Predict the 3D structure of the following.
Amino acid sequence: MSGTRTGRISGDAAPLAFNENPAADSRQSRSVPAGTQSHRLSSGGQIDRKHPLGFTFDGKKMVGFAGDTLASALVANGVKLVGRSFKYHRPRGILTAGAEEPNALVELRGGARREPNTRATTAELYDGLAAQSQNRWPSLRHDVMAVNSLFSPIFVAGFYYKTFMWPAKLWEKLYEPAIRRAAGLGKASGEADPDHYEKAWAHCDVLVVGSGPAGLAAALAAGRAGARVILAEEDSRLGGRLLSETGEIDGKPVAEWLADAQREIAGLTNIRIMTRTAVFGVYDGGTYGALERVNDHVAVPPAHQPRQRLWRIVAKHAVVAAGAIERPLVFPGNDRPGVMMASAVRSYINRFAAMPGRQVALFTNNDDGWRTAEAVQRAGGAVAGVIDSRGVVPEGYRGLNLRLLSGVVSEVNGGVDGVRGIVVRDAGGRTQQIEADCLAMSGGWNPNVALSSFQRGRPAWRDDIAAFVPGQCPPGMVMVGAAGGDFSLAACLREGHAAGAVAAKDCGAKGMAGEVPRGDDEGFAIKPLWHVEGGKAFVDFQHDVTASDVKLAQREGFESVEHLKRYTTLGMATDQGKLSNVNGLALMAEATGRDIADTGTTIYRPPYAPVAIGALAGHHRDENFHAWRLTPSHHWAAARGAVFVDTGLWKRAQWYPVAGEKDWLESVTREVLAVRNGVGFCDVSTLGKVDVRGPDAGTFLDRLYINTFSSLAVGKARYGLMLREDGLVYDDGTTSRLAEDHYFLTTTTAKAGPAMQHLEFCRQVLWPELDVQLTSVTDQWAQFSIAGPNTRDLLKNLCDPSEDLSNEGFPFMGVREVALRGGMRARLYRISFSGEMAFEIGVPARYGEAMAENLMRAGAEFDVTPYGTEALGVMRIEKGHVAGPELSGTTTADDLGLGKMMSKKKDYIGRAMAGREALIAPDRQVVVGIKPVNKANRLRSGAHIIPKGAAPGPDTDQGYLTSVCYSPMLGHWIALALVERGRERHGEIVRAYDPLRGEDMEVEITSPVFYDPEGGRQRG
Amino acid sequence: MRIACPFCGERELGEFTYLGDAAPKRPLAFAADGAEQPDAQDLFFDYVYLRDNIAGDMNERWYHGGGCRSWLTVTRNTTTHEIKAVRAAPGAGAQKPAKAGAIS
């Protein structure tokens, strides 16, 4: 509330009248088709009576106006009952007019766009809106589960934990599903959301949160001074509490001042207005999370527009003018439909021209409640009486002929159709009945401190306003106006203006902030009333937590506010206790005899308002869940019908099926045989590639790899192995020396990014004295492996005839640049992963597709076969080459059979730690080959190696199968495995035990090299 | 959190990768001919595994992988996330090689 107390009634405002006869009224004025709007005032409000909007609630057709929320339209239509409570299924009505609403939660829209738990108070009305009530069956009026209410004496806090503890196995199967069905909220559509969501960044000098009087004054001051300002407002229009109040600013009626302020702000191009945008979180470095509900106010977002947009706003300063939230009173029957917050009643009357009742009673413990009585009276409604627990009429309201009843409300009579009457009890215990169909309550105001507390700032208690005010705010943030605990209009305007001016100046803005707007400096007096005894009095409306639940928690020892919260679930519903928390801890303070300041608050955590997962996900869903990278020959492979596999972010061709093949194994086997017997090629561009240059490049690589590269001849490639500093294997790949000071290093596909980071760490941090530079060129080169006995013949068709590709002219592990037919240059590397005569050819990435086509042409006479990652994998297993499954982060160089590569003549990453006792132990698991004894058996990766005759278990587990394939060359399944003392055990029969698949078979330990162990094929 | 990269300016956390305590210095545990010093494993054990976990200002290594690929030394208060200083590693950028043993 940033409120303007109505000390005066505007001269032109004639008392407003109900549409007593809606039908007659609409006949009289064609511009006002009031239809079903029995509670709509005939004039006033910020609704557009020329734009009626049809909508349905639980299928019933109703009419509202542009400018309505769903809640205000329901109020105008005389709807009292809107939902059933979470636990007891008690009938509930609209309680508030804002984001704090705990009761009026509906399912909005239908089909795939159905959104459960939407607050009717923040849902803007649109033509054709369809809303359904929740948590009731078969209907809202006749809810079977309302029987829960009869058992409410036993459904107390902790009931479920106490009652459904034994037998424990029934919990998951019986108790929990049953409880979840009975107690609940709306249901999700169960379908994919057809709308899309965006994420965006924004930057500014001053972020102003909230556009009530304090926020507007801050935005105007900062904007006039010249700062870059973002003004974020949760509502669809600017004004905050001003939209719901009457009074004057700068001598003008509030509405007029507001219109002027909006005009000025619109003219200041350095102010960005973001309406429908709720700032929900505060993060380090002045970053704020905000949710913009771009198209929640229409049924279907326009083409190419998101439903919601998640903003991250970076601001040097934030002026938070988030206002205050009115606090309910805790008294018997305070949850009946027709009991409403006093400020909400004022909002429905002043902003929406909807009268919540024909006879309104007020129950207050503070001056502000009286303002609502005045608003009701001025709008032509009847005030049944003002029940003030303080027993006096505040000064400004004495001449208004409002009936004071000193005491408290001790009972509310009514049912699904709303309040029928109330019982007032005075200090002496005497009671009297009052007739009313609406009870407005005001328990004081809670400054909206949430944003100040998200970085562990602890709110401080102020006795004079009986509320918590912000403690230490996050760096760069100030809270002003009602959010800071200063409720008068004058204070809001003054503080907002000052904060805006200071923030702008701090950001270097030189302009003048202008005059401080002037408003009433009305007082605010309150005498706390925390609880009225005598029946079920609700503290947390959304989670059905009563005053007696809080006292029970105290009796059972849950006295800390954090325990109170978890034991009773107070404040844990989707409204996050915006209405209930302070009442809950005041009751706990009372029960424990502590004061409220000592009782303290629970930790506040973002988000302040619910944020849909869809908004957090943004575009990252379905095929765009993460970015994807395409190889240079991707489109060519796709056109050939390749099957792709996700490898990190890459999509790689896994195999290329041809017509008539019945499964992947048939395709892969064909590809392997085609390579081994003829020639094939495979896109290997995904391997990480790093250009290493500089006079110290060789020295640098020597320190990086376990083997030596400074001694590598120009024009040669060498396989290298890197360790982590802890001595375990990090990555492998071939590195070529293209010139004295120029190496070309490759990594595995998976480690391309991390290895670059590692290399940069070594260069920049460990050895800055080395003159070497690194460039990642993974994306710059299209690289193909060409393998098989006919490789050289294919290359002769591809390369310029002058290129000598003979074994002498281009020996194994040779590297050089060659000219292709047509004149293009390419890099050619004679390296082999498959074990066949093989080359890799590299061309600039943009020629990837053309190269694939050229390879097909050059190899056409040899029936060249493109192959995918599966065939690549089969051939490397047949050849005993280690890859990802063996480079698992737990293996040493020696485990992989590469221990001899470890140089003793130099320091290198991981050398010292690789010598640790356990890393050189003789019983380590090392790489071996595995063959099934029964050649018809299929091996499974992950199967454990167990000695024959031993009972499977951790003690007898000797290793596991890491890589498995069907070997087309051997005609049966083979595997690589890590097996204890494996190198000493070639020929031994053990078991491959796979409890996951229920398999147990005898296998033979062999050399890991199954195919061409002499290596003659790749050197030929 | 936002880190002011000396090359790229203030950028958001998602562009950076955290490594940890910047204090450990890689030991020189091998002679020029490759001979291992007797205490090499102890020195490296400390370097690889022992880290301070300071509640307060701490020098940390961060990598600007989403930007200029520089390694940075960031002085950050681990309890408030306030960043007090950001320095590039001695070998960052394309400048001439730094002297051996330069402070990072």
